[in-house]
Amino acid sequence: MNQSSKIYFKVGIFVLVSFFTLILFLIVFTAGNIFQRSVSLETYFDESVQGLDIGSPVKHRGVKVGTVQEITFVQNEYSHKLTEDTELRYGRYVLIKMSVPDFVKGVYGDDLKRTVQRMIQSGLRVRLASQGLTGTAYLEVDYLNPEKNPPLSIEWEPKTIYIPSAPSTISRFTASVDKFFEKVEKADVDKILLGVGELIRNLNQTIQEAKLGDLARESTGLLVDLRKTNAEVKALIASPETQGLPKKLDASVTQLQTTLKRLDTLLASNQGDISTSIENLRIASEDLKEVTANAKKYPSQFLFGEAPNKSKLWK
Question: What is the pLDDT of residue 139?
Fold first, then answer.
């Protein structure tokens, strides 16, 4: 083998080794994606999806769970299932297909469809979200209020698992602004301005009739009186007589407590005498009642006493 043949042989070996090394690296770094089972999902939007591109992330509460695979219109995918009337209504819907590996881990086929249907009834929705100020968008999969976010009406059978969409925050804000301006246009602005002008005239008239100058002078006088009264109160509080009141009050309270203790002791030591006196008063009261009753019944007896005994002559 000559020198040039050896060189070609070495170059061929180097190329083959490099080629197989590259294939090995590709297998190692893409093996997870090759053998990973992905679930195809689709949704429809009746609004602009500006900023969303193929490859944009699909996130669930901020965590990436998949990517956008295709963006098109419903009329391009389901034209054979739409009539002329329905094509005008549904053809403008934006169809977005997503690829989500292990959407519900360990569940596939018909079981996955039933599981997703239960999740949709619980409020599972897809909506468009924006990544800060960059203008790029992504799809957010999350649970929302199903009553406030009803699914879009469709009249065809989706080819893959279908998850309803919900209006984005930007579209909601735009719709609210549009409704506000519609109400402003419908409102009778001229009548409102006339009412405001009448209100201003009435307010000016009320201010003129209120005589604000007199009120200001009276308020100034009242303020002067309040300042004078405040100074007098401060002087009264600062006087020695007023400052000595707390001590006198404490002494009076102490003396009152001592007197009450003495009164309690006196009542306790003479309890028997007090009970006897009360009983005598009760007996005297009963005797007085009896005397009063006899006086009412026999007034002559009360005034002149009992009648003398009869004479023996009358026997």
Answer: 92
Length of the chain: 315
pLDDT digits (tens, 9 = 90+) for 123-164: 999 999 987 666 788 999 999 998 988 988 888 889 899 999
Q: What are the C-alpha distances in Å from 162 to residues 13, 39, 149, 267?
A: 52, 11, 15, 96
Tokens of 211: 């005589």
In whole angstroms, what is the distance from residue 118 CA to residue 134 CA? 35
Output the CA angle 143-147-151, nearest 5 degrees: 75
> CA triplet 268, 271, 275: central angle to 5 degrees?
160
Low-confidence residues in the chain, pLDDT < 50: 35, 311-315
- What count of Cα atoms within 13 Å lies in the side-chain half-sphere of residue 142? 18
Bridging pattern class, strands 137-143 and 124-130: antiparallel
pLDDT at 69: 93
User: Distance (Å, rounded) from C-alpha 210 to C-alpha 219?
Assistant: 14
Query: What's the rounded Cα separation, in Å, for the pair 140 and 58?
Result: 6
- Among 64, 52, 41, smallest CA distance to 128 is for 52
Instruction: Please give the pLDDT value at position 143.
Output: 92
**Order of all β-strands in the sheet with 63-73:** 124-130, 137-143, 57-60, 63-73, 94-101, 38-45, 161-162
Question: Is pTM, for the whole model, over 0.90?
Answer: no
Give the DSSP letter of residue 133.
T
- Angstrom CA distances, 178 to 49, 129, 300, stand at 19, 21, 111
Strands (E), the chain: 38-45, 57-60, 63-73, 94-101, 124-130, 137-143, 161-162
The β-bridge partners of 39 are: 100
| DSSP-assigned letter for residue 92 | T
The whole-angstrom separation of Cα 128 and Cα 141 is: 9
Q: Are 69 and 99 in contact (CB under 8 A)?
A: yes
Provide the 10 A C-beta neighbour count for residue 52: 20
